[in-house]
Amino acid sequence: MLDLVHDIQTAYRKVLNCMSRPGSIENLACQIEKVDIDVDFSRSNLIMMYMLLDAEVSFKIVSHEEEKISKLVNQLTYGKYTSLEEADFIFIMKDADEDMVEQAFKDAKIGDLIDPHKSATIVVEVEEISGNKELMLTGPGIKKENYMQVKIKGDWLGEREKKNIEYPLGIDMILLDEESNVMCLPRTTQIKK
User: Is the dihedral of CA 77, 112, 94, 15 positive or negative?
Assistant: First the structure.
């Protein structure tokens, strides 16, 4: 059974490590195997929802099963369901099509110069995350360069670049794969092909 304090705290430390070291990969399998709730989406994502959502923040689900998942997430976390433009956290499920993914990136809020922290974090379910040399990562938290390979539908890279062009405004990303791996891409990370 998932311990909502200790297991979520352990997962949080792993995510925080990934956020401070972009391109590093952590595994949440130990926490995920304790999840005893049957959900129609990634259990990694459920862990993230428990970690990030509460009655103080808002979320948006990007999925063909949006209404069903949103109701469940609201019941489990008390997070407020809202539009893409208003959401603090946007969860893109694996069943989302290319247009849905691109729209989520286009509509995600980036904060403002007074409150850049009032931006969206986008959590994306993907098939696989790896350190293969497809995309090069540079920026704070990376000694020289890091590499990653991930497949996300649509032009997510171009849309992310547009959103993050005027630092400190922008969006942060958390990637989750089928093997319970997590990787983070903060707004400060530069990505090149």
Answer: negative
